[in-house]
Specification:
alpha+beta; Alpha-Beta Plaits; 4-stranded antiparallel sheet; elongated; disordered C terminus
Length: 311
């Protein structure tokens, strides 16, 4: 295909968009909806995954001790706990350290505890499990609950970690199903848009065939039409996703997850932008071009080039 011919056919693709505004706009809007959902599911799931990983790494077992325990008793208890199968590390947390940790973690609300004495919180052991798997984690907790009379209680947040993982999985399953449905709808509508354009120009297509136009020559304007729809949908969706995530989703997730992880910060959009550009424009152009090629190939096979295979 000559360079000037390709330029002419590309301009025809732009004219196709202009002459079929309603269907083109419908195609763009459906594609925008699909890509928006993909972007928001990806960013939200990434935040949940980061929160889960962070929470799991901090999900220690806290063994609270009776106050006034002698140092030699405490050291002996620490050694015995360290010999348990699923125990990777044991660290003693004094009453003063526990109070200071609470002061730093909940600095905004710590004024409620102004004047609290140093022995306000009990001493404890902070135990890091070797495995966070539910079966091993719960077995270690059961061992510690009946381990020694010096242990008053055992605390952990494994249930919360499992709930975070469940929410993430459910979000991915539901979001993934919706994405697949919307992608199929996008391809169908883009295909229908291009097919509508072809029907309005079927006489012109037959004339081009009769004068010996190659299949690529006829396909090019409609491929351009699909790619334009894909590009426009990708650009609009990316802009909306960035705005919705930055001003809405990120702040909401930050508020919700900061209850469990006071230091949690949502994903940086700037750091994710290269990946988002690749995903959005890759999927947009693939969907637009794919829907277009699907339609033109089927149309030409059924209406114009039905005898091509016999030639």
């Amino acid at each position: 295909m000559a360079k000037h011919g390709r330029g002419y056919l590309t301009r025809m693709g732009f004219r196709n968009i202009s002459s079929n505004r309603t269907m083109s706009m419908a195609s763009v809007l459906v594609l925008v909806s699909c890509l928006m959902l993909i972007g928001l599911v990806f960013l939200t799931a990434s935040d949940f995954n980061r929160a889960f990983q962070d929470f799991s790494s901090r999900n220690v077992i806290r063994v609270f001790l009776v106050p006034g325990l002698e140092e030699n008793q405490r050291n002996d208890l620490e050694r015995r706990i360290a010999t348990l199968d699923n125990v990777r590390e044991v660290r003693y947390v004094s009453q003063a350290e526990a109070l200071e940790h609470m002061r730093v973690t909940y600095a905004d609300d710590f004024r409620l505890l102004d004047g609290a004495r140093e022995d306000f919180l009990p001493p404890s052991f902070e135990i890091s499990p070797a495995s966070q798997q539910l079966e091993y984690f719960n077995a270690t907790v059961r061992q510690l609950e009946d381990f020694d009379q010096a242990i008053t209680s055992v605390g952990h947040m494994q249930g919360v970690a499992q709930q975070l993982a469940t929410i993430e999985r459910a979000f991915l399953i539901v979001g993934g199903a919706l994405i697949i449905v919307l992608l199929l709808v996008s391809i169908f509508i883009i295909s229908s848009t291009v097919q509508t354009t072809m029907f309005t120009r079927q006489q012109e297509i037959k004339v081009m065939k009769s004068v010996g136009a190659a299949p690529a020559f006829i396909r090019w304007p409609f491929l351009v039409e699909g790619l334009i729809i894909g590009f426009a949908g990708s650009a609009i969706a990316l802009g909306i996703v960035c705005l919705v995530y930055f001003f809405g989703v990120a702040r909401l997730l930050g508020s919700l997850l900061s209850v469990l992880l006071p230091t949690f910060t949502p994903l940086s959009l700037l750091a994710q932008l290269p990946l988002l550009l690749i995903v959005f424009f890759g999927l947009g152009l693939l969907t637009g071009g794919g829907g277009s090629m699907l339609s033109i190939t089927r149309y030409l096979k059924e209406n114009v080039y039905e005898t091509e295979t016999q030639a």
